[in-house]
Amino acid sequence: MSKPSPDVYEQGKGMDAHNQVMREIRSRKEASYDPHEPTRVWLDEDNTPGGVKRSLTIILNTGGCRWARAGGCTMCGYVAESVDGGSVSHEALMDQIDVCLEHEDENADEPAELIKIYTSGSFLDEREVGAETRRAIAETFADRDRIVLESLPDFVDREKIGDFTGHGIDTDIAIGLETATDRVRHDCVNKYFDFADFEDACAEAATADAEADDAEAGIKAYLLMKPPFLTESEAVEDMISSIERCADVEGCHTVSMNPCNVQRYTMVDELYFNDGYRPPWLWSVAHVLEETADVDAIVVSDPVGHGSDRGPHNCTECDDLVQKAIKDFDLRQDPSVFEQVSCECELTWETVMERERSFNQPLTR
Ligand code: SF4
Ligand SMILES: [Zn+2]
User: Fold this and answer.
1) Which of 33, 126, 266, 353 gets the highest tally of CB atoms within 10 A of its CB?
2) Which residues, chain by chain, have CB under 5 Å from ion ligand 2?
3) Could you tell me the pTM of the whole model?
């Protein structure tokens, strides 16, 4: 498996300009944090290959994303923390897990069947989460059905997955692929790895799956709907083909399409401020879900900040309705939910899809 890394790709590989701009934008804000507190924790429910499950989502604070320090992705408002070296100790990480378990205890009637752990980086990168901590976390959640762990493809490894499947936990690795098109991932998102690296990671997960006695392992791909510099119709086209390509890769069973929202201290924010970016229409999200409903994977979308100017939105009148249809689709995978929603603004969206060109975008706000 190839070994791309933020250090290798930062200099002299055509990404210097994006990184320089992103570093400058990010440096306008510095954050500090308490390493004993998770970044966020919440309860929800999620569609998985094993059905809809009650979930506990944990954003672990692991000292953060190295790629963000180099400059990082154009839409990601993750702010590099001001702690030198940026590593968080085993004890502090386990304290964070305890805080999450207390939150669950206080707010849920029963323990969640599904645990999702994100780090704004890679849970499987041992510089973020060491082997000792990884194994202790696997043991903590040994009684749960399923776990989702976020990682860049570089760090996906059958033995690390085995730490979880060995306890009988079905294990999914969440990879922020963003798009299956290398050119869009490199030039619009400023993310350094290739689709081939994603395919390698899927193959590792498929091997871990075959090696596990009584648990499954697989990949959940996260895609970014409408990165900057694409028109609405280009973004839709890119997303449809990305979902189809991901669903075709063995080992990838779920695709989560995330509509881009405008986060502060990002290049997307600069463009938005200068009338150069509009988040995707919710009609586009619905359209992509309809068009890809028959692929061989679960396809879901959870539009964050829907209905607001900085989030995916239509005309404001119909935003809640379309969002509700999308959430319905997530759980039931039935595209007919979209037949029941309509609004006058569909005509505007259709016109945008037809007429917007990258040299005159966005056509409306
Ligand atoms: S999207 Fe992920 S890889 Fe990119 S800068 Fe943000 S945290 Fe890092
Ligand atoms: Zn509308």
Assistant:
1) 266
2) 314-315, 317-318, 343, 345
3) 0.89
